[in-house]
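Quick review question:
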């Protein structure tokens, strides 16, 4: 049987674990999560469904020649990054309604919709439960390594 931590030693043990976690190099795990998110965003375009699983509203054009939101590929590309490392950086995932995602000014209009422009919301930047579970497993594995 593995030795445990005595109750009297618990505060010091918790502080030691917190210190190890605070200085843990999680860059690789976070980069792996960023990849999972990007793959998930691409899947969202393929599914053409919102975060609740509902199909995107149909287009107004009765004779579509391309899948919804995929005429040029700019929206999907705006959710992707080729940054090999995110060390020392905060990774922001989302759409800034004022400027659009990745320099695509119409991204926010499609992500959130626009009643004034009569454009339906077609949410594409979100993480499914599968993607969140994959990220939790990646980070959990890394935390386990740090604490063992």
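Suggested answer, residue by residue:
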């Amino acid at each position: 049987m593995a030795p445990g931590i005595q109750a009297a030693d618990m505060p010091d043990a918790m502080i030691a674990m917190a210190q190890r976690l605070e200085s843990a190099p999680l860059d690789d795990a976070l980069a792996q999560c960023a990849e999972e998110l990007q793959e998930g965003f691409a899947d969202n375009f393929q599914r053409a469904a919102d975060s609740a699983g509902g199909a995107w509203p149909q287009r107004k054009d009765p004779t579509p020649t391309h899948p919804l939101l995929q005429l040029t590929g700019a929206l999907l590309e705006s959710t992707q990054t080729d940054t090999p490392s995110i060390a020392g950086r905060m990774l922001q995932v989302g759409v800034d309604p004022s400027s659009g995602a990745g320099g695509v000014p119409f991204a926010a209009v499609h992500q959130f919709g626009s009643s004034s422009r009569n454009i339906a919301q077609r949410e594409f930047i979100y993480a499914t439960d599968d993607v969140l579970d994959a990220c939790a497993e990646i980070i959990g594995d890394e935390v386990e390594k740090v604490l063992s």
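Why it works: The chain is about 45% helix and 0% strand. Residues 93 and 131 are 14 Å apart (CA to CA).
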